[in-house]
Amino acid sequence: MSILLSVVLPVFLVIGAGFAAARRGLIPEAGIDGLMRFAQGFAIPCLLFRAIATLDLGASFDPAVVATFYAGSFACFLLGTAGARWLFGRDWEDSVAIGFCALFSNSLLLGLPITERAFGPGATEANFVIIAVHSPFCYAVGITAMEIARARGSARAAIPGKILRAMLGNGLIVGILLGLLWNLGGLPLPAAVDEALGLVIQAALPSALFGLGGVIARYRVEGDLPTILFVLSLSLLLHPALAWGLGTLVGLPTDAFRSVVVTAAMAPGANAYLFANMYGRAKRVAASSVLLGTALSVLTASAWLAALS
């Protein structure tokens, strides 16, 4: 209970405040959209840029962290896609969108602040390693699978170009790439620039969490409940269990192990709905998975934190 009160609950109270403000009409939809555009298009890319630009890649970038997290993530994508197709009778395009929900955990808006609150700012280096790969990996897997499903045996030469355009149009990926280039160039951040980034970064996670609450206030959990619960069992239970097992097997250091398990235990991120909406496939399942998963992760995240502590 102390973990729930001190670590998890404050994060979800901010999400709940955004949810309540949107539901009661205190902030119009356009205001929530503007807040999310600021958070996801500017503030969080600044956060990612500075984190990656100043990260000691030699000391922090552990391939075992990436392999442990994304082996579980990809397994959940395959199981989610296969389950949607053969357990629930969805067509292949719907199945890929449903699998993407199990693939894309909310590493940034939930995983990062919960890890930081639970274990301290110094315990989040592995989180940034995961985040640096997250959007590029997940969108590459999802778009490739969807375009193959849509191609139906026709020419697939356009698929790499579609993947590249989708990635370069994503502000989070641009922030990560610029930070990586700055880091590899060995350039110091000018003091004034670092100070300006710090001012913007202070607003990044609070505004994103509040905006996330406003976004999920638009959704309703309706229909497709067995499919939604199947997706959430993969996201909230199987993925962290796989991360725990694989992390133990490869002997991850304590901080990295915690970051991998906590991040794997997060609900599907809003990008799961954005991906479904981009293709017009399984939108109700994706939206409901984000909404119900975010609510349930108050309890499941607390359970995983209790196990880790």
Secondary structure layout plus pairing:
Layout: H1 2-23, H2 29-53, H3 57-60, H4 63-86, H5 92-103, H6 107-119, H7 125-151, H8 159-168, H9 171-184, H10 191-202, H11 204-216, H12 225-250, H13 254-264, H14 270-279, H15 283-308
Helix pairs in contact: 1-6, 1-11, 1-15, 2-9, 2-10, 2-11, 4-5, 4-7, 4-12, 4-13, 5-7, 5-12, 5-14, 6-7, 6-13, 7-8, 7-13, 12-13, 12-15, 14-15
Give a short synopsis of this structure.
This protein is mostly helical and 309 residues long.
Observed structural traits:
single chain, 309 residues, mainly alpha, 15 helices, 81% helix, globular
Report Rg.
Answer: 19 Å
Which series of helices and strands comes N to C? HHHHHHHHHHHHHHH
Outline:
globular
Unreliable residue runs:
none
| Biggest sheet descriptor | none
Number of helices: 15
Highest CATH level, the class: Mainly Alpha
Strand content: under 5%
Helix content: over 70%
CATH topology: Na+/H+ antiporter like fold
What is the β-strand count? 0
Mean pLDDT: 86
CATH architecture: Up-down Bundle
Notes on the structure:
This protein is mostly helical. It has a single domain, classed as Na+/H+ antiporter like fold. Helix content is 81%, strand content 0%. The protein has helices at residues 2-23, 29-53, 57-60, 63-86, 92-103, 107-119, 125-151, 159-168, 171-184, 191-202, 204-216, 225-250, 254-264, 270-279, 283-308. α2 (29-53) runs antiparallel to α11, α7 packs antiparallel against α8 (159-168) and α7 (125-151) runs parallel beside α13 (254-264). It is globular, with a radius of gyration of 19 Å.
